Amino acid sequence: MQAIRCKTILTKSKLPSVDYCYNVYIGCTHACQYCYAEFMKKFTGHINDEWGQFVDYKENALEILEKEIKKVKKNEKVLLGSVTDSYQPIEKKLLLTRKSLELFLKNKTHISILTKSALVLRDIDILSGYDKCEVGISCGFLDKNVYQILEPRASNPYERIMVLRELKRAGIRTYLFISPIIPFISDIESIFSLAGDSIDFAMGEILNTKRNNIKKLRSILEKLVGYNKVSEILNLCKDNEYLSTIQDKFEALCRAYRVENKGFFAHKN
Predict the structure, then answer these.
(1) What are the residues whose beta carbons fall under 8 Å from the beta carbon of 24, sequence distance 6 or more?
(2) Are the C-beta atoms of residues 18 and 107 closer than 8 Å to each other?
(3) Do 24 and 83 form a contact (C-beta atoms < 8 A)?
(4) E strands within the chain?
(5) Which strand (E) or helix (H) includes residue 101?
(6) Mean pLDDT for the chain overall
(7) pLDDT exceeds 80 at position 211
(8) Which fold has domain 10-265?
(9) Rounded to whole angstroms, what are the CA distances from 202 to 22, 134, 224, 253?
(10) Alpha-carbon distance 141 to 195, whole Å?
């Protein structure tokens, strides 16, 4: 871990329904094996480091945020954690996300948080003070044998779903991001059955196979499903018929649980 200084902190977003992204950390020690934010290595001086094994923090993030926050208009939304997790383990000590939330609240900024960490509940006192705030968790599978391999240092999926329930009880708008959806591994029906009554909206995303370390991912998937099944999984992630079927299922589940469907994303080559 090392401290770095940034020149800017709010970046214009290309993501749907988000105007700015805010990342106080570089890298993420949750070490999710399917993460496609690994491209950040070549921009941050970590080209030879293993993704998931390092994190840098922007020591002047709050100072820069105070200067830049004025450019966010009242109808615009800021996403905390687009290429990192704002609540990864080091946040428990550094409190950069918590202090950022205090600044955003003071400015009455509309914020969105996406995390895999139960640590977000620590800040429920601040989040409850927002007029416009939404907190989501990403979850793609519930099987212990799967998440311990693919998400070794994130909060387990059941803890994440508990987070949604607690936030919902506190009156905070919540959402579920079912990602990554991996053929033969992800069970989106079971995820909805546990989380469906605790969310306002949902999004889904197929596993992104357009990545630099696909060989590494392939070897990891082999541990879960065997050598012969991996090619079928990767092909299905780009197969129009499969994508249409799984999207239809996702949309049907949104209707069944009466939650807003805010998008289903695929990454075709």
Answers:
(1) 9, 57, 58, 61, 84, 86, 96, 97, 100
(2) no
(3) no
(4) 2-4, 10-12, 20-22, 25-26, 56-58, 77-80, 110-115, 133-138, 173-181, 201-206, 260-265
(5) helix 96-106
(6) 94
(7) no
(8) pyruvate-formate lyase- activating enzyme (3.80.30)
(9) 21, 12, 27, 10
(10) 12
C-alpha angle 100-104-109 in degrees, rounded to nearest 5: 150
Cis peptide bond upstream of 180, omega within 30: yes
The two structure tokens encoding residue 235: 């092909």
Which token pair is 120? 């977000």
**CB distance 180 to 233 below 8 Å:** no
* Mean predicted confidence (pLDDT) in 101-106: 98
pLDDT of residue 48: 73
> Who wins on pLDDT, 162 or 210?
162
pLDDT band (50, 70, 90) for residue 1: confident
β-pairing, 20-22 with 201-206? unpaired
Cα–Cα distance measured from residue 57 to residue 85, given in angstroms and rounded to the nearest whole number = 12
- Residue 236 CA to residue 243 CA, distance in Å, equals 8
Using the structure block, give the residue that is written with the tokens 């879960």. 224
pLDDT band at 219 (very low <50, low <70, confident <90, very high): very high
Categorize the per-residue pLDDT at 215 as very low, low, confident or very high, splitting at 50, 70 and 90: confident
Q: Domain residue spans in the chain?
A: 10-265
pLDDT band at 237 (very low <50, low <70, confident <90, very high): very high
